[in-house]
Amino acid sequence: MDDRIFKTAMSKFATGVTVITTEVNGEVHGMTANAFMSISLDPKLIVVSVANKAKMKQLIDESGTFGVSLLSTNQEEMSNYFAGQIKENFDISFKTFDGMSVIDGALANITCDVHNTHLEGDHTLYIGKVRDILMQEEGMPLTYFSGRYYNLS
Ligand code: FAD
């Protein structure tokens, strides 16, 4: 099957947008991801899918922890920045929560320890055991559909 058909079909599944963060040797790294899902209530587990070629993969493997920030509707630029699509200087607002750097102004921040990993094709699934959750903002989510951002409100 042509890659384009697969990508286009998958893009018809509307999602929210997250920024995954991790820290190695005091340096924070962020990456935009929409392959995020809640998977279990007891224990509380979530999953993110990270491309094997992404810097983030090596860094999570090293740190064993990561944060997931669920972006709000006014954080489109933040999403583009952490997807490597904006090269100019950008005013990044990290905040510290549960000893981790997460995105300030997100709808919620989730901190996790890596519980399990599955190498699947060109991506790695990181199952995160949730350590803590911070609900920051009331607002609406940034949404992504068919390769574009949408504002639910
Ligand atoms: P880089 O590409 O090096 O980092 C990303 C950007 O963030 C760079 O510009 C870097 O300079 C900047 N940056 C990171 N940390 C800091 C910091 N501390 N201070 C200043 N700048 C910093 N990829 C996936 O693997 N899984 C997904 O689920 C996924 N979903 C996506 C959803 C959307 C809506 C978009 C737009 C992209 C998605 N991507 C996803 C692609 C992914 O975001 C990019 O390929 C990204 O560039 C990979 O990041 P990286 O870890 O390789 O690091």
Automatic annotation (TrEMBL):
One of its GO terms (molecular function) is riboflavin reductase (NADPH) activity. Residues 10-151 form the Flavin reductase like domain. It comes from the Bacteria. Gene3D superfamilies: Electron Transport, Fmn-binding Protein, Chain A (2.30.110.10). Keywords: Oxidoreductase. GO terms for biological process: pyrimidine nucleobase catabolic process. The lineage of its organism: Bacteria, Bacillati, Bacillota, Bacilli, Bacillales. This is Flavin reductase.
